[in-house]
Structure prediction request, 393 residues.
Amino acid sequence: MGAEVVVEGLTKSFGSQTIWRDVTLTLPPGEVSALLGPSGTGKSVFLKSMIGLLKPERGKCIINGIDIVSCSESQLYEVRKLFGVLFQDGALFGSMNLFDNVAFPLREHTKKSETEIRRNVLEKLEMTGLAGAERKLPGEISGGMRKRAGLARALVLEPEIILVDEPDSGLDPVRTTYISQLFLDVNAQIDATFLIVTHNINLARTVPDNIGMLFRKELVMFGPREVLLTSDEPVVKQFLNGRMDGPIGMSEEKDQATLAAEKAMFEAGHHAGGVEEITGVPKQMQPTPGLPPRAGDKRRTDRVMTMLHQLPPKAQQAIIDSLTDEQRQHYGVRSPAVVAAGRPTPRPRPQQPAGPAGDQPGVQRGQLPADQVARIPENRFSPRPPRGQGGGQ
Prediction:
């Protein structure tokens, strides 16, 4: 199972410019999470801070009990071995063929024999759909193949955490979907923790278990995918629909004068962009048939059901609607409707036929006082306070 990443109050600045502040979230082990946000909000900076390439001014980033913000260089070196990173452009060595590119971390950081290295490299190339291409140079293959080669290299050290920076960069929508499928297939096979930074809305809506968003130097929210995808926050709705109408502008944030001018323009009939209003929570992509089910998906469902009563009503409804009949029975959910206290609404009981009193021993008739009516027990999973759910919590 992948490692859990706990981020508490993380703040990063370059000189007097604050990139983001007080970021608090938890990446659940073995689950796939995505981080969204307009360009320039520091998403890639966040990834670099997680692996210690950049040092935040405040806060903690705890992995396997080690805070990488304050740990020693030797501890940081060991923690970095838990990570695999897929960079935007693959970051392959142009003078090396794919085999040597993928083998590079093994030769640098392990004492494996060339026989072991060859077996490991060919296995990862096959896992990423590149079997037979090991002798090709990066300049001889497509952008999608370079992405997959970068992913194969990220996997050779058997990482517990995989960071993915803009996987759709330079790819058409179809290839983006294929590489999204590959992420889920890899997660199903090695159960690693994923964090994907992306602008791609289709990927964000159908791949991750959890979604977060950075805006105005803050973490707007982070939690189960249903929370963000059903959110009424203006910045979230604008971003998901790719429209000009909203608080995001060309320079990240609009001032009041710009907002007022654009509002008048749109009310006068000017098109705000976007193709259609994106609402609701689509089905999540699943591993390719023949692969094992994702262990992280099962853990995620258990975790979300324990916190269900703490989530917004729309998110509750979306989660309940996504459950199979078997899952509803397992979690004690009998109806899609969820009451505010977090308990499923019980089905109405059929009325007993009228008859003479005493003709059915043990059957009470009439109406009991409210304080004597038995309460329906809550589901068997005792709620516990979630860590990292929602920005700033």
